[in-house]
Amino acid sequence: MDISIVIPVYNEAENVEILHRKLVDVLSKSKKKWEIIFADDGSRDGTFSKLKNLKPVKVVRHRTNFGQTAAMVSGIKESKGRVIVVMDGDLQNDPEDIPKLLYKMGEGYDVVSGWRANRKDTFSKRYFSKAANLLRGFLVKDPIHDSGCSLKAYKRECFDDLDLYGEMHRYIPALLRWKGFKIGEVKVHHYKRKFGKTKYGLNRVLKGFLDLINVWFWRKYSTRPLHVFGGVGVLLIGFGSLFGFYLIYLRLIGRISLVNSSLPLLAILCVIIGVQFFVSGLLADIAVKSYFRIKNGNTKIKEVIENQDM
Questions:
Q1: Could you point out which of 36, 46, 223, 263 has its C-alpha 20 to 30 Å from the C-alpha of 135?
Q2: Has residue 234 been placed in a domain?
């Protein structure tokens, strides 16, 4: 299989048939082998009934609504293509842009992301997206303009060692860039939603922000958690110890009385919390080393060349 199109959907009954027809029209012009996979994330509006009657198609159905990232992962696991194209199921992405992504990938890129240069969303959605892009660029050094665009093409090996959960689909290009993959982007069309309701809201904004912090922390400290937890612990232990000795000094020279004072408790508390942070850092370091040992680092190797001819 050359190309797998993966579309996570949730309550998109009015859109899936139209999108499938457009995809078949575009893909039929290609000489490559292709497949279309819809990942139904527990829809309750008849989306699954519509999907069952489409041909050709593969449908992955969740028991309930687990989120867009989970649906995308389920679709990717069922795919067989050497290139995986992911897109939204709300007709805001244009299937006609898929050949542009594949052409760009032919220039040597591992990932090609769509860039909605002329977005057709509401003002509030564009505002939050722009703010998120600025924050994302500051924290995770995202290499593309529009990480929130769902229309992206990936080489299959991009997902060999990639753990996705929560709302992490937004940060896949940044995660892959840290792993050494080459990221590109092309401008794509974007249309207003005609049918159904948007799934974008404050709840997703909050989840996306928390996942952004998680990505930032994982990038900086995934291989050295002792540096952050141990560092905080050492600072607290140092502060508590110095503060305690200073109180003892003031008491010895008669400057203050520690009777009925909570200041010694504050010094002791800082030392205790500092020790807990330091121990937590040690345990996290052990856990991370075990994680990477189990995961095996072979996916960091892009290629191995062996010449045996004399």
A1: 223
A2: yes
Task: List, as one string, the DSSP characters of the chain.
Answer: --EEEEEEESS-TTTHHHHHHHHHHHHHTSSS-EEEEEEE-S-SSSHHHHHHT-SS-EEEE-SS---HHHHHHHHHHT---SEEEE--SSS-S-GGGHHHHHHHHTTT-SEEEEE-TT--S-HHHHHHHHHHHHHHHHHH--SSS-TT---EEEEGGGGTT----TTGGGGHHHHHHHTT--EEEEE-------SS-----HHHHHHHHHHHHHHHHHHHHTT-HHHHHHHHHHHHHHHHHHHHHHHHHHHHTTS---TT-SHHHHHHHHHHHHHHHHHHHHHHHHHHHHHHHHH-GGGG----------
Domain boundary among 202, 220, 238: 220
Q: Are residues 200 and 280 in the same domain?
A: no
Residues 253 and 189 in one domain: no
CATH number, position 107: 3.90.550.10
pLDDT per residue as tens, the chain (310 positions): 899 999 999 999 999 999 999 999 999 998 899 999 999 998 888 899 999 889 899 999 998 888 888 899 999 999 999 999 999 999 999 999 999 999 999 999 999 999 888 877 665 566 666 666 666 666 677 778 887 788 999 999 999 878 777 677 878 888 888 888 999 999 999 888 888 777 665 666 666 677 777 777 777 776 778 888 888 999 999 999 999 998 888 888 878 777 778 888 999 999 999 999 999 888 887 887 776 666 655 444 444 444 444 4
